[in-house]
């Protein structure tokens, strides 16, 4: 299943990458305080040949349908690893589930498109495949809706954050 999500922000790409995406205080405030995820942890972040590579461990709220939670063992967390190429304004990522990683594939990219001198559009394109007999489609549908809801709440938080910080 392919998912595309788009939001506009009143800032520059450089400001977004620096003050939002790569800022740990922003990410803790977003994931833990705003989205109420039980855990968010930066495991690795390093600049390498003009590309920023990062790895984060995330434990989202456990709101999946009962059959999906049962298949996952009742709890779900994942590692997101990705590479940000600032010169192209593109972050490519892969999500590695804590359980059933061989049956779940989630990957994609998000890019920033310049609208004006002080305005950007963040476009997220992601592919999710769940190969678990009997619940694959249910799980993919849940992930799609969950991602759209989460990115929507994150966009509202980001807009307010950017306004409040004058970025």
Q: How are the elements arranged and paired?
A:
Layout: E1 2-9, H1 13-21, H2 24-34, E2 39-48, E3 51-59, H3 66-71, E4 78-85, E5 90-97, E6 104-116, E7 119-130, H4 136-165
Antiparallel strand pairs: 1-7, 2-3, 3-4, 4-5, 5-6, 6-7
What features would you describe in this structure?
The chain has about 170 residues and is α+β, with helices and mostly antiparallel strands. The protein has a single domain, classed as Alpha-D-Glucose-1,6-Bisphosphate, Chain A, domain 4 (2-Layer Sandwich). Helices cover about 35% and strands about 40% of the residues. The chain is built from 4 helices and 7 strands; from the N terminus they run βααββαββββα. The protein has helices at about 15-20, 25-35, 65-70, 135-165; strands spanning about 1-10, 40-50, 50-60, 80-85, 90-95, 105-115, 120-130. It has a 7-stranded antiparallel beta sheet with strand order 1-7-6-5-4-3-2, with helices on one face. A hairpin with a 2-residue loop joins strand 6 and strand 7 (about 120-130). The radius of gyration is 16 Å and the shape is globular. The model has no long low-confidence stretch (mean pLDDT about 90).
Sheet with most strands: strand arrangement? 1-7-6-5-4-3-2
Mean pLDDT over the full residue set: 91
Overall 3D form? globular
CATH architecture grouping: 2-Layer Sandwich
- N-to-C SSE string, H for helix and E for strand: EHHEEHEEEEH
Ranges with pLDDT <50 over ≥5 residues?
none
For the largest beta-sheet, the strand count, sense and barrel status come to: 7 strands, antiparallel
Q: Superfamily at the CATH H level?
A: START domain
Strand content: 35-45%
Q: Gap between N and C termini, in Å?
A: 35 Å
Radius of gyration: 16 Å
Task: Tell me how many strands there are.
Answer: 7
Number of domains: 1
């Amino acid at each position: 299943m392919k998912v595309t999500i788009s939001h506009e922000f009143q800032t520059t790409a450089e400001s977004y990458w620096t003050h939002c995406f790569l800022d740990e205080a922003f990410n803790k405030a977003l994931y833990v305080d705003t989205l109420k995820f039980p855990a968010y942890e930066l495991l690795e972040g390093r600049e390498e040949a003009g590309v920023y590579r990062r790895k984060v461990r995330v434990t989202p709220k456990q709101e999946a349908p009962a059959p999906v939670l049962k298949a996952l063992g009742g709890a779900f967390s994942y590692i997101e690893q990705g590479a940000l190429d600032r010169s192209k304004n593109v972050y490519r990522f892969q999500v590695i589930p804590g359980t059933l990683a061989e049956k779940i594939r989630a990957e994609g990219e998000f890019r920033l498109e310049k609208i004006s001198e002080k305005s950007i559009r963040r476009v997220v394109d992601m592919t999710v495949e769940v190969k678990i007999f009997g619940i694959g489609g249910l799980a993919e549908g849940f992930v799609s809706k969950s991602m759209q809801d989460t990115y929507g709440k994150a966009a509202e938080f980001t807009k307010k954050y950017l306004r409040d910080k004058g970025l």
